[in-house]
Sequence to fold (146 residues):
Amino acid sequence: MKLASKVTEIYCIADDFCKEYHLELNKTSLSLSNPSANSPKHRKRKGRMSDAEMITILILFHSNTFRNFKHFYLFYVCRELKKEFPDLLSYTRFVERIPRVAIPLLLFLKQGLMGECTGITFIDSTRIPVCENKRQSRNRVFKGYA
Fold:
């Protein structure tokens, strides 16, 4: 089954989550009853691309075999998924807006897409060099841990 066939399904789940997330965020956020001249103004206009669309594209990237996000966005999303995402942003603008959806994306993945633990866990055992080998006896960064 192709990944492109799952776009609508992922988008619907992400959109439902984003609607609930923004409702909860608006309920629990502080509001100023008497805004002063020094308080920052908040933009109320919606963007060209919704948070759910951005989350969908980011999930598709991590589910695909592309090595970097730039090629995925420019050569797959902009060409193959233009019909599914008609209001695409430029690559630069999309990357600038990723931090805006980082927390909703992580909450979405934690809440809905995390699987059950089967009891088997794999840990990456890639070495992370902290210092040069000749100085490793004097290094105290991970003393007692590694």
